[in-house]
Amino acid sequence: MAKVSKRLRELQAKIEERPYEPLEAVKLLKETATAKFAETAEVHIRLGIDPKYTDQQLRTTVALPKGTGQEIRVAVVARGEKVAEATAAGADIAGSEELIDEIFKGKMDFDLLIATPDIMPKVAKLGKVLGPRGLMPSPKGGSVTNDLASAIAEFKAGKLEFRADRTGIVHVIFGKAAFSAEDLLENLKALQETIDRNRPAGAKGRFWRSMFVSATMGPSIEVDIAALRDIKAE
């Protein structure tokens, strides 16, 4: 069992084992972000789904109203004039078959890969290298599109793709611990509403099981899901 540091033990002592009101939870997250670097705000949500069934899978995108606080490096794979269009729209890397070959050899200095539909058959061979990192473009995730300018702008502004893992848990970054508590709460609310809107058709029984937030190096804080769902979005 991993040894818990003195710093983390002291922080854990501040957290009660109970669901916190959403605003109280994000305030605690900020208070417990004491690492020597700019920590990220993370949320881990257990849903009542079994993703091994296709009608119980969750994969979608959320546009965080306050952004992620992160610089996203976007790569685009396209053909012909679409490559120049991607560069003009702010893509950090853009190319065609030669870029696919570079990625296949392990060159992956990007956080997101967008592809146009016509080149997806060529991108398919990257499944083994991109799949494990969650970087494979997908129509559901908004990263397979002909509207490159909109997609690049949205992802750079704070749009995130997320999915439930094989155990039905969703792990998402929803900002930086340095954000105000109100901004973090607004992002968390947007995420909750997106998950509710995209509830898989096959989900049975209680959909929301648990939600915990934390800073990158901080302790887990349980959030009262019912209270979060009751908040009226602005």
TrEMBL record:
<dbReference type="GO" id="GO:0000049">
    <property type="term" value="F:tRNA binding"/>
</dbReference>
<dbReference type="GO" id="GO:0015934">
    <property type="term" value="C:large ribosomal subunit"/>
</dbReference>
<dbReference type="InterPro" id="IPR028364">
    <property type="entry name" value="Ribosomal_uL1/biogenesis"/>
</dbReference>
<keyword id="KW-0820">tRNA-binding</keyword>
<keyword id="KW-0810">Translation regulation</keyword>
<dbReference type="InterPro" id="IPR023673">
    <property type="entry name" value="Ribosomal_uL1_CS"/>
</dbReference>
<dbReference type="GO" id="GO:0019843">
    <property type="term" value="F:rRNA binding"/>
</dbReference>
<dbReference type="InterPro" id="IPR002143">
    <property type="entry name" value="Ribosomal_uL1"/>
</dbReference>
<dbReference type="GO" id="GO:0003735">
    <property type="term" value="F:structural constituent of ribosome"/>
</dbReference>
<dbReference type="Pfam" id="PF00687">
    <property type="entry name" value="Ribosomal_L1"/>
</dbReference>
<dbReference type="InterPro" id="IPR016095">
    <property type="entry name" value="Ribosomal_uL1_3-a/b-sand"/>
</dbReference>
<comment type="subunit">
    <text>Part of the 50S ribosomal subunit.</text>
</comment>
<keyword id="KW-0687">Ribonucleoprotein</keyword>
<comment type="similarity">
    <text>Belongs to the universal ribosomal protein uL1 family.</text>
</comment>
<dbReference type="InterPro" id="IPR005878">
    <property type="entry name" value="Ribosom_uL1_bac-type"/>
</dbReference>
<keyword id="KW-0694">RNA-binding</keyword>
<comment type="function">
    <text>Protein L1 is also a translational repressor protein, it controls the translation of the L11 operon by binding to its mRNA.</text>
</comment>
<dbReference type="GO" id="GO:0006417">
    <property type="term" value="P:regulation of translation"/>
</dbReference>
<dbReference type="InterPro" id="IPR023674">
    <property type="entry name" value="Ribosomal_uL1-like"/>
</dbReference>
<keyword id="KW-0699">rRNA-binding</keyword>
<protein>
    <recommendedName>
        <fullName>Large ribosomal subunit protein uL1</fullName>
    </recommendedName>
</protein>
<keyword id="KW-0678">Repressor</keyword>
<dbReference type="GO" id="GO:0006412">
    <property type="term" value="P:translation"/>
</dbReference>
<comment type="function">
    <text>Binds directly to 23S rRNA. The L1 stalk is quite mobile in the ribosome, and is involved in E site tRNA release.</text>
</comment>
<keyword id="KW-0689">Ribosomal protein</keyword>
